[in-house]
Predict the 3D structure of the following.
Amino acid sequence: MSKLHKALLTASVALLGLNGCGGADLPDAEVVSTRQGVESATAIPLPIPACALLPDTDRDGVCDVVELLLGTNPNNPDTDGDRLNDYAESFGFGGGLDLTALGANARRKDVFVEVDYYPNLRPSQATLDKVITAFASAPVSNPDGSTGITLHLVLDQQIAAADADMNLSPVWTEFDVIKAKYFAAARAPYFHYAVFAHQHNGNFSSGISRGLPAHDFLMTLGSFNGTEQQQAGTLMHELGHNLGLDHGGNDGANYKPNYLSIMNYEYQFYGFELGGTVGALDYSRVHVDSINEAAVNELTAFAAVAPSTGSELTRYYGLRFNDAQVAMFSAADFVDFNNNRQYDFNTIALDFNRDGDATDVYPVSQNDWAALLYDGGGQIGFATPGITQDLGREELFLVAPEKMEPCLTGDPRDAR
């Protein structure tokens, strides 16, 4: 528990004169173990002693008066909307887990991911930082006045060589053997689980998510020597599936030219050029107007649709179509869609999605950051008996695990 929260809780106890109720002695500050938050539980027990006899309107384990001290919403058990209960994010949780030791904040969105890896496949910190930076830069508002999402990529442990199945097949049956041994059960209601592995189902797919949205995902770039850039892009791509994003954002249509997102296969391995940074990662943050394959205009290129603005499009460079980066000024200016090194004055026809015709019409693209689903297919969210359990939703999966397709295929010639 942070010193701030201890001080706030001590103040509330003193203020309410309830320090004799329910054994309100505060625990000593916790020490984060090598498992980074998985340790002997010494967090404040439920309910918070100072709250034992006081109103708790949202039934989240934190009484209204303490919520006022913390700045959380007494009428909402999940103030910041990240599907993690205010109690768990403010005071830790028993059962062997303390989210506060990992930096959880009830007033700023947090996403927790445990990352395990096969021998020789440990991701570099630079790889993780690229994704962490992308989330920190997200155009997402928080109750504490900040913007962005705090992504906690907890690089946990190496899978023993004896357990590192080189071809996980059937993928989720074999994945669960690893998960049962290496993923701490105490983290299950709060963490996604990712494994950097070699291969699954005998293919050369870069990875797969366990449904959409989902709790688990698999990275399998080990089969074709994935670069640091490919690893970072794929990590953010598969995590995007876990957070409810499809290959077209709100649909499964891939290679949509007006969908500027790492979820689009054109960008998974390459990223964008944003603010002078080549290889930058991003989910779509701009509603881009529809495009008709039969009538592509290189001189007008893309147009933003409200509430997005044209100035948001000007930050995008390095656009890709049909597996090639094309010449352009910015996404709001001229774009050489057909990569013929000139800007055509007449409309042209292009088969962007490689289906053999140029007749598709792509609707306005979505803002991915505003569409994220944080509950991991109904598996992530506070659900302790006696405390509110209304963090779920009726439709757990937009795409069921058994219907989820493997993601972008690498080049088998690079196979180890």
